Amino acid sequence: MRLVVVSNRVSAPNREGKAGVGGLAVALRAALRERGGVWFGWSGRVSEAPAELPHIVQRGRVGYAVVDITPLDRDEYYLGFANRALWPNMHYRLGLTQFSRAEFAGYMRVNRRFAAALAAIIEPDDLIWVHDYHLIPFAAELRRLGIQNRIGYFHHIPWPPIDVFGALPGAGDLLTALAAYDLVGVHTERDAGNLARSFAEPVGGMPVPAAPRIIALPIGIDTAAFRAAAQHADANSVVQRMISGLGDRPLVIGVDRLDYSKGIVERLEAFERFLVANPDRRGNVTLLQIAPPSRSEVPEYEQVGRQTDETLGRINSSLGDTGWMPIRFVKRSYTRPVLAGLFRNAAVGLVTPMRDGMNLVAKEYVAAQRPDDPGVLVLSRFAGAAEQMREALIVNPFDKFEVAEAIGTALAMPKDERIARWRVLYEGLCRHDIGWWTQSFLDALTASAPLAALPRFS
Ligand code: ADP
Ligand code: F6P
Q1: Nearest ligand to residue 384 Cα
Q2: Less packed terminus of the chain by CB within 10 Å, N or C?
Q3: Does residue 305 sit in the same domain as residue 204?
Q4: Active site residues
């Protein structure tokens, strides 16, 4: 059976092997590399009169089929409903949610147009796997066109409790659309519970359809490939330059898209707190925060960019010295080998989102470590990864005192304990890697067996 993957962001590999920034692009590339298939979605381009049919490019075993969208589509569908309404709502940020009926209509319209474009190239046996919140209505639109193939959906961001989700105008329509899928996947048991409960009570007076089959299946990374990249990274000149610039100071690292859900401002403040509480550490430790801009045309993202710059400037000017800056902040993306090398040389990985579907950076940090001298992962309890990665130092990112203490604990942790924690985490990453995740979802999608009989992560 041919696999057809559908996602808003399609990331064809470029010549430098630079990955698209964002967990979904990184993960789907790994999944399709193993199995081959077609990857359909937005080209990333905006044009006044986009072609109706996809533009198909074959690269190795993967065919990339992409379509452009109009400037209005981008404003209403991508910058609008998807990223100003759905994203904040699903990250539990009711105060940031901006809803407009025109944007909701634009979201539905683009889903309809994408479905029509895919319907033109679909074959009867294709297995269709749709990804992420931009495309919730996609299957319902395909069904309207008479497509009867099996269609699965994976939701890569959190699914909030009904009191939060139900506040989103259009919530009832989204649930109705979701019911058109044969299987819906989320990363955690918590999200699966919230989603199942969303189908159990009427939303905004609207009758709710029967729930689709729901599976909690935490996404993994290409553990072996990332580890291999890390092992070879010491020879990489970018990594060498970066590491030699640190001198003997231990490195604390954070890597995230510049997104308010990632808790970057709060993380900088926690690091400041750590330095204030531990004056002996001043001059002796560096935080490297890598945060490429993301969705910067969305006002709430522009605002977090400004807040980040202000916080960074304040901390570096108040605590820095002529020969030492507490925080190095870099706003660009790096190749996977460079990232792997930086993770490998960092004594602490700080992954402290305020809320996150999974967070692949947490997994990449662990995969990159040296088995005989690993670093320590400090992980937000609100990242989906925390449901699996219990041997990390789990923190509440809303409490900067707690995060500051965890940084101190991580830097002082004896080697035996670091090794013991790392081993358990690493074994989990090997067992539940991207191949396991892809296969488990596709098995569940093709099987008619009850989900209880299918593989689970714990
Ligand atoms: P999200 O999907 O919300 O962006 P994840 O942590 O799940 O969050 O995934 C982010 C992915 O993007 C990871 O694979 C990470 O390595 C990659 N990434 C993030 N920042 C960079 C960067 N500056 N350069 C290269 N890759 C990056
Ligand atoms: O699941 C995280 C996610 O929202 C993906 O859907 C998305 O591709 C990625 O983050 C990066 O965001 P964007 O595609 O808006 O640049």
Answers
A1: 1
A2: C
A3: no
A4: 156, 356
Task: Give yes or no: residues 88 and 7 share one domain.
Answer: yes
Residue 295 near ligand 2, beta carbon < 6 Å: yes
Number of domains in the chain: 2
State the Cα–Cα distance between residues 348 and 178, nearest whole angstrom: 40
d(CA 407, CA 286) in angstroms, rounded, equals 12
Please report, in tens digits, the pLDDT of each residue of the chain (458 residues total).
899 999 999 987 654 445 455 667 877 887 788 789 999 999 999 999 999 899 889 988 999 999 999 999 999 999 999 999 999 999 999 999 999 999 999 999 999 999 999 999 999 999 999 999 999 999 999 999 999 999 999 999 999 999 999 999 999 999 999 999 999 999 999 999 999 999 998 777 778 889 999 999 999 999 999 999 999 998 899 999 988 888 889 999 999 999 999 999 999 999 999 999 999 999 999 999 999 999 999 999 999 999 999 999 999 999 999 999 999 999 999 999 999 999 999 999 999 999 999 999 999 999 999 999 999 999 999 999 999 999 999 999 999 999 999 999 999 999 999 999 999 999 999 999 999 999 999 999 998 655 554 444 43
Cα 318 from Cα 207, distance rounded (Å): 57
Ligand 1 in reach of 69 Cβ (< 6 A): no
**Domain housing 255:** 223-432
DSSP letter at 150 equals -
Task: Write the CB contacts of 390 (distance below 8 Å, at least 6 apart in sequence).
Answer: none
Which of 166, 193, 216 terminates a domain? The answer is 216
Residues 114 and 191 in one domain: yes
Answer whether 289 contacts ligand 1 (Cβ < 6 A).
no
Ligand 2 close to Cβ of residue 156 (< 6 A): yes
Give yes or no for a contact between 297 and 256, defined as CB atoms under 8 angstroms apart.
Answer: no
- Our mutation pick for probing the ligand 1 site, out of 257, 260, 304, 366, counting the most ligand atoms within 8 A of Cβ, is 257
Cα 133 to averaged position of ligand 2 atoms, centre (Å): 9
Using CA atoms, how far residue 388 sits from 115, 236, 300, in Å, is 35, 32, 31
User: CA 256 to CA 251: how far, in whole Å?
Assistant: 16
To which residue do tokens 């919140």 refer? Answer: 133
Residue to substitute in 24, 294, 300, 356 for testing ligand 2 pocket (most ligand atoms within 8 angstroms of CB): 24
Q: Whole-prediction pTM value?
A: 0.95
